[in-house]
Amino acid sequence: MNREGKKCILYPRVSTEMQVEGYSLDGQKTSLKKFAEREEMQIVGIYEDAGKSGKSIEGRPAFKRMLSDIQEGLDVDYVLVYKLSRFGRNAADILNSLEFIQSYGVNLICIEEGIDSSQTSGKLLISVLSAVAEIERENILEQTMNGRREKARQGKWNGGPAPYGYILKDDTLLIDEQEAEIVRTIFDKFVNTNMGYTGIAKYLNL
Question: Which domains does the chain have, with CATH numbers?
Answer without folding.
Answer: 7-145 (3.40.50.1390), 166-203 (no CATH)
